[in-house]
Amino acid sequence: MGEGAGGEPAVFIEDVFSTYLYTGNGSTQTITNNIDLSTKSGLVWLKIRTSSGSRHQLTDTVRGATKYLQSDIDYAEGVAATGLTSFSSTGFALGANADYNVSSGSFVSWTFRKQPKFFDVVTYTGTGSNTTIAHTLGSVPGCIIVKRTDTAADWAVYHRSLANTEYLVLNSTAAKATGATWWNSTTPTSAVFSVGTNASVNASGGTYVAYIYAHDAGGFGLAGTDNVISCGSYTGNGSATGPIVTLGYEPQWVLSKVATTVTTQNWLITDTARGFTVSTDNDPQLFANLSSAETLANRFNPNATGFDVVSANSEVNSSGETYIYIAIRRGPMKVPTVGTSVFSPVTYTGTGATQSVTAGFPVDLSITGARSQAAGESFYDRLRGATILLIPWATSAESTKSDALTSFASNTQITLGADTTTLSVNNSGSTYVDWMFGRAPGFFDEVCYTGDGIAGRTITHNLAAVPELMIVKRRSSGIAWFVYDATNGATKNLVLNTTAASVVDSLPWNDTAPTSSVFSVGGVAYTNNSGATFVAYLFATCAGVSKVGTYTGNGSSQTIACGFSAGSRFVLIKRTDSTGDWYVWDSARGIVAGNDPHLSLNDTAAEVTTDDSVDTDNSGFIVNQLSATNVNVTSATYIFLAIA
Q1: Domain range annotation of the chain
Q2: Is the confidence at residue 1, as pLDDT, over 60?
């Protein structure tokens, strides 16, 4: 876990929050999301995505497993003996109740663990008189959601962006209303919140639960100062180029609602697990106040420091109206310690029909290489959207391929379609390798941005380390892939889609080395054309996990030590002083003492299996000089990315 400020164990967002997707089996199943709900308190909020009429189910550890509330209705607490049946140190268990686990149904669960400066659960009995309720959030609440449990009553919502005389109703589309008897016209403190005499929050003898959310309170990360949750607001402008909401981090979950409009709107829930992308492809939407199935809409785009409103729809952006939100930071925040938690190479045979490829962790970038046919490699990633293709061996703009990689919406897998009309990822009988990456501090990050044409622009990233390898592609039109590497520095660049040596050119990176928080670009077409959209893939050396480095060839054989203990599972090598392919080897196809299959990212050639250019070594890998690849020519210079 790591030691935080004051010697206490550090806490990270992945310890206290999870969006977990699952498929119902109509029986019993255990959901392992690695959130401790047995020794810690918390809330599980779940909803079927694929059918209408099944309500949101909210169960917390304080009221107890099997007891539920439904956010889309004012009903009292119910009991479902075969719903959510128990909590554990790694998640929760489900019974056969259809609202929780109908066979073949697609579900989403959001788990909030009780933690100071993040989330608290409090139950209380009403007095019928103005009173205060103690909480242990350890900071001033940003949002409080109260539900009466013993009888029907509306869900009452306090939000810091509204006056303490105002409230919203979670199970309603209504705008804010004024009522001094709800929060007793009193702003909450870091120790208590106040309720008035309204029966929805404080009827004499009534029983209540309050879900309490922090706002920019710090408390997370190794220093204990990182924010992971924000309760804020923005003002709509009625344009498809809407407000930019700055959080100071990239979000993974947003609950939003218009507060002031006379046109009533729903409570919108967006998350990265189901799809929260920067593309114009529609993202899946659920509504806290509706029992309806998931719909598709393009409302928000995440960025490295918050999110952009990208729709003029009144649901998110009526001119002059106030919108409130709860936003939660994207994880993970922990630096990985083993390569298998963030990278997986997998070989498979195409079926020409839907199939899944398992990584063992949430996949953020999938690079598929066609082995048995000359079809080249394909880049797909979660942030741009599952069906959006980039090809590394060409200058083409990104394009939509609806039946290739079809979904990242799994906790451990990607889903492939029939692949009937696209570049090859699943043709029946063909063989493939998939290199799957998870974003993690110190290892790999991805940033999408829109160019402004201004030299010296800095782009914020969340790698939490200085990038040593950056691959940038203009998404919106055809132009080369530009590559920065730390060895050549900010005055040179390489091109991924060619074999060319590095060239002197200070414009792409504005002659400025990246830092642990930003990288720089010039005002040029290939990294910062005004109005163009770009994607950047950033890699760094992460102890025991990855190594970005350089070596000089010796003409025979040499060991490239990377600090690993069980060798490399992925090796990318490029010669920089002269021409040379962007060669890739991996352990799934074989890094062994004999011949090792390789592919080249810069061309469409099928896999080559007839040379022994690399060998295994526990500390990293071995390169052998052969004319077939020339990866160890005397005095030649090379860069590499290796992953354990």
Answers
A1: 5-113, 119-213, 229-329, 339-437, 444-539, 546-643
A2: no
